Structures
1.
Amino acid sequence: MKTIKSNTYARLCDHVREIALVQSIESLLEWDERTGMPPAAGPYRAEQMSHLAGRVHQLWTDPRMAEWLAELADSPLVADHDSDAAVTLRELRRLYDKKVRLPQKLVEELTRAAVLGQQAWAVARRANDFEGFRPLLERIVALKREEAAAFGFTDSPYDPLLDEYEPGAKTAEVSRVLAALADELVPLLTAIVNATPRAKGAGESTRKTSAAVRAGGDSALDGDFPLDVQATFARLVAEQVGFDFNAGRIDVSAHPFCTQLGPHDHRLTTRYSQRDMTDAIFSILHEVGHGLYQQGLPPEHFGLPLGEAISLGIHESQSRLWENLVGRSRAYWEWLFSQAQHSFPQALTDTTLDEFYRLINQVRPSLVRIEADEVTYNLHILVRFELEQELLTGDLEVADLPDAWHDRYHHYLGVTPQNHAEGVLQDIHWSAGAIGYFPTYSLGNLYAAQFFEQAEADLGSLDEQFRRGQFAPLREWLVEQIHRHGRRYSAADLVERVTGRPLSHEPLMRHFRRKFGPLYGMN
Amino acid sequence: MKTIKSNTYARLCDHVREIALVQSIESLLEWDERTGMPPAAGPYRAEQMSHLAGRVHQLWTDPRMAEWLAELADSPLVADHDSDAAVTLRELRRLYDKKVRLPQKLVEELTRAAVLGQQAWAVARRANDFEGFRPLLERIVALKREEAAAFGFTDSPYDPLLDEYEPGAKTAEVSRVLAALADELVPLLTAIVNATPRAKGAGESTRKTSAAVRAGGDSALDGDFPLDVQATFARLVAEQVGFDFNAGRIDVSAHPFCTQLGPHDHRLTTRYSQRDMTDAIFSILHEVGHGLYQQGLPPEHFGLPLGEAISLGIHESQSRLWENLVGRSRAYWEWLFSQAQHSFPQALTDTTLDEFYRLINQVRPSLVRIEADEVTYNLHILVRFELEQELLTGDLEVADLPDAWHDRYHHYLGVTPQNHAEGVLQDIHWSAGAIGYFPTYSLGNLYAAQFFEQAEADLGSLDEQFRRGQFAPLREWLVEQIHRHGRRYSAADLVERVTGRPLSHEPLMRHFRRKFGPLYGMN
């Protein structure tokens, strides 16, 4: 009997590995589509991808899946809850149970609405036309309500949708922590706005530098940064923090991303702006954070829960940690700035480290999330998190969304969009049916700060290490504490396990005060 | 009844299109492997590819295939032999019949031997160790004999293997035409070797140029050609002759190739040598020839016989035509040379068009096929074509292959390799189980010259057009005469249909005499 069950377990794992293999091929099709696919190849690419998506669905809903899971439910394999097999079965059961609750028809309608929605969104955004997009968004919200109902929930219909991106998270708990964050963040932002803007170069205004602040621009630097030198520098930056190019590469795409095409195949992308190399560098540090998480997952478990990322929030914590907590720190640039000056002599020779540090850390309420700084970013998320909950519960109608958006931006950030393109139409997420996704960005920031504080407690001054270009201790700590466990723990359990405390807004606020106080003369 | 059969026909076509779709995904995996895949990703990539290969095999051997083909064999659809449906069924029947004749076990053993063979070949070539490679090659030859027997043949065991690459071709006929070619080629080569080497710059030897002939080197030019300028120039060259970048792109790989990833997705690769831009340019013109063939196939029939290339020989005729008959002509460089000088002023300003033209058309007996010139190339092929036939019939043992190789090179080219790496181990083909492939390279040269002569008869002086940068008439002629038919005609039928004569060595010899006579002062 025991032999039969362990054969069943092996068969189940082989089957799930096969699903992952097909998905990895789908990921290559998507990577290629976003990096270099010729324009005319689009329609056939959609056929190739939907063929594989259909195959994945077929494999997940194979009737043997239910049989295997049922047969193994009370087997000796699960006696020890912490064994690899028990963890694997727990996670596969969870995934399978969610998948089978959705009627095939709803899945198909959601897929179709998401494809049409993204196309309509792109058109509406260009035309600044919310009304043209409204019917499709209404359809998507209705389908997401149906989906929430099909999954089932006790407290909020938002719960099962959030759970798709952040397994185990509850809306009430996320609301509590983000509200606590906002309570301290809004006064801090007001203080920063009112503070002497030392970042604008007070006291140095008579000195011309090539890296002048662009008034109202979205870019810190304004120089001439040759693209091929930027590419070499980006690779250097990624290598220095430990990204393994033997199992990865960097390409160019309009929107930077990171994807995994196999246990040893991690693809980062960035984009290069001739006038500002920081765009590419912070994109690379962000994506490298994702890439290091993937490279730290146990490759022998690729495709199975023990080889997969826990949640989008934990994934994002790794990218934000390297982008912001490392990459925007003064210590990091004490290490890298002279190298940057060497690579870009024309653009950076007349810039001081202090100027540069202030330029990459300007805090300014703005309208567009993806251009926001470290501090205000979370307020952009809060707006979306509140609004998408209200859409789902029916407290807010899609027709009233633009007004609510304006009100909420005014409330949290003190700014008001002049058009829909820089307002409610700026993000693709809702048009693609991704409701419940946004809070994982802020969760990522919170996890990152809490992990980072613990890393510093365990490893001593990280600034000291960064100044010497030593990133291995931090990276290895992250592998040891987070990456190597795969999905063994939920995000909430992992945070408590690693830091000894539940998730809190305090580490992030401490980081903000410690960093921006001196920068804005608010000691 | 008729309705049922046309439904059957639609089902069959859908099934075959699905096979093509899965194969197109496999092609992307291979393209990525050869262009940019990180080294460590190799083993999983093999799993991804063999998964899809297994799926393709599964789809081909679906029992419904035999039923559908049997049901349609006597249907009204095939009454008109020239109808699209009749052509499609004829070709699918042919493919299916060959596939089902091979026992599953033999297919698997051949696949395994080919994978092991390629690995062993790479090691043996580096180590100049034929004996280490011999057992695997013996195994491969034995399996290819088995394969030939399984396919069945009347005249030569080489026939069914050749047929895999050049459907419908017969060994005796290919032997006849290549022997006729050799009878005239060997004396021509002797005459060239004995002729005054005007290509070496006689009468100009006192003048220094940046494009000096490298004594004994494999490269015509020796200058400084910045890689990014070469990439821009390669794209220009491809665009000028009509390659559609809306449905294609150029990447870099160690060995240039062309592949098709969908009806509107054509990928070329090349490689760049800093010291000689001709390597990249002729590679690009070669691959563009393949790409234009693919882009000229009817996309609506993608995956079905009417949307596929006829044979490797016809495919190669298109690449050789653009590489050699267009790209190595004086008229082409009368158009392009000043543009090349503009792009590479440092390397080319002191070179004249005449010098350049002679440099890219040096004829010299050599040891390595892929570095051979237009004239000697076919003698390299003849050596391989003779030897692989003898291996297959048993007239030659693998153990005796190196000696036979030396004798044959001495006989046809008057040169003798000093080691196996530049001798019998130089090509990957046999190690990968590709026996019957080599003659398609020479067939490509022969087809190309015969088509080109006919195009000139139909379109007037092509040189006149090339001088003005007009390539559309030739390209459109090729689409009209060759590409748009897909596999409607066999290669032999197509040649007769287009040129009014069966394949002959004469057009190629006429081309050689007309071109190299003046170049080598042999008028």
Note: Chain B touches chain A at residues 18, 21-22, 24-25, 28-29, 32, 36-41, 43-45, 47-48, 51-52, 228, 244-249, 251, 261-266, 302 (CB under 8 Å).
2.
Amino acid sequence: MAAISRIDLVRSELEKLDLDACLISQHHNIFYLTAFQGLSEQEREAWCVVTKEKIYLITDGRYIDSVDNSNLTIRELTAENALPKILSGIIKEEKVTSLGFEAEDLTYHEYSYFKKNAAVSLKETRRLVSGIREKKDDEEIAAITEACRIMDQCLKEVSGAISLGQTEREIALTIEWWLKQHGSDLAFDPIVAINEHAAIPHFNTKADGDTKVTAGAVILIDCGALNNHYMSDITRMLVVGKPTAEFSQAYQALLEAQEIAIQLLGEKQHYKNVDLMTRAFLEKKGYPSYAHSTGHGLGLEIHEGPKVALNSKDTIQPGHIVTIEPGIYLKGKFGIRIEDTVVIDETGQPRCLTLSPKALIPISV
Amino acid sequence: MAAISRIDLVRSELEKLDLDACLISQHHNIFYLTAFQGLSEQEREAWCVVTKEKIYLITDGRYIDSVDNSNLTIRELTAENALPKILSGIIKEEKVTSLGFEAEDLTYHEYSYFKKNAAVSLKETRRLVSGIREKKDDEEIAAITEACRIMDQCLKEVSGAISLGQTEREIALTIEWWLKQHGSDLAFDPIVAINEHAAIPHFNTKADGDTKVTAGAVILIDCGALNNHYMSDITRMLVVGKPTAEFSQAYQALLEAQEIAIQLLGEKQHYKNVDLMTRAFLEKKGYPSYAHSTGHGLGLEIHEGPKVALNSKDTIQPGHIVTIEPGIYLKGKFGIRIEDTVVIDETGQPRCLTLSPKALIPISV
């Protein structure tokens, strides 16, 4: 049922753009519309064409038998029946004169190839399906809520088991293993960063996570779970023993900033103002601005629309799910980030889906 | 040192194409040329421009401090200093008149955006860096050899621990955990497929791997390890107890086909003939052709050039590393694939880098 109404939304977008049909290439968008699931995010394993009458799924012999969706018209890619030929067939059959394509996904080479080999006028579209995906339906909100619940539980258990001498990489691996043992998966490679490593907003724990937990260490953990294709995202700070006064003060300022930012989601019209005011609040307290956005949408992808950033044009709308994650980074000293996954409810009010306590998490070792 | 000679190869390609410079966007190609490593394969975290004089690495505030390579000229992306502006600066400074771009990687939208905003003639290139990457240097061969050794060891230990009642997904998770515990990682999600599941060449173990190991089961395991950014790929078949005569016969035929295919790498000029003759051999024995290619190059990516396929134009050359993986798939019954990672040595002869025994692996439970 969900898939049908998503297709209706695509068709209504096509009508607005005066297009007869569109070619969908981005694999998350294909999954969203058809539930097709290949093996790889890196390779073209399927294509989807939405016309006024039909939804075509185009894939090859490796996957064709696994497609189980009676709403779809299947076309098989073979050496003799390559994509331009299949597209030309659909175009002819359904009298398509203008075919939209996803300009943010199709490569220049693919575009040139189709242009040369398929007899149809190709029209650039932007955010055609990604735009629709920004507003989550009930099924999606439920999946993300559950991904948040799983992550909260994991974070609680993993935090409780941290010990002196463990490296950042080992803690990250513990998170991964917990999720996989519980039928979930990583939404992204966790960032586990101790002391000055936490001052690097995108610290690469896999590559550089050799620092060990010591007495007095503050630990940033930024992680997310995958549940039924949907993701969660949370950052919490842990401390071994008593933190310094400088750290505690910064933590309180950031916590206040993050809670104000969440509240602003229910008050402002545009995400850019949430970003702007959160930065302003921290700057007024004497902290430097952070070199990343205040937040981002998430769902099938860890970073998707809307953007919670200074350059965002997006308006805050019911059904959006975004992270709110300001940070304070003092190079060579420490970094702090506090992050929640937040849904905008039907009345336009923000509600945190990640429910881990937001006070500094004490580690007893 | 290696990075320098790679850049020389790029510059000599540019000269052939009559280009002053090129913009590299594909993240594996950026890593290959600069050793830059971001966090995500899905997002544009850096760009590289190779000119006659310099190698520019362009990235943002999240990563700029982590770049540690004195051969590189760094440019920082900021809100005020977006990519077209940086590109325009480089173009002007270095008097670039024609800038190549990677047509197989740049999206149509990015292309249009640069075309509109950077004052330079953009020229489509294909396989500019990927083509160079096909021939592995000694450092790369060593990394892949080690990835093969790790995978062989993992396969041996994991096979030895398989027990009745384990699901396909659990075995896949055991492989993953073994690799991660040993400082390695997955090259791709392992395929573990029991009995008729193995007849699906790209069986999705994560999604559908609920079948349990039982007496008489045959188990296909297709997996690879990641070592220092480089990958290995192997497929072996395991059997619990005594296989059927039909299976044993098919296994012998396939093993013979796979060994002939490897041998042909040392005899033929073109990969397409290796593919053709391997299929012909199996068809003559009465088995159906397989719905995938006979093999593929691998290295930083699990699928890269050259192609070992009917439609391949690639010639067999020293330094190439490819998989050889013919299969027999009998729908509803069983599937068999035997796969090795093979290097073409300096004398043009094939040498297996995966060294796991190729006889059916007996599982005692």
Note: Chain B has ten helices and 20 strands.
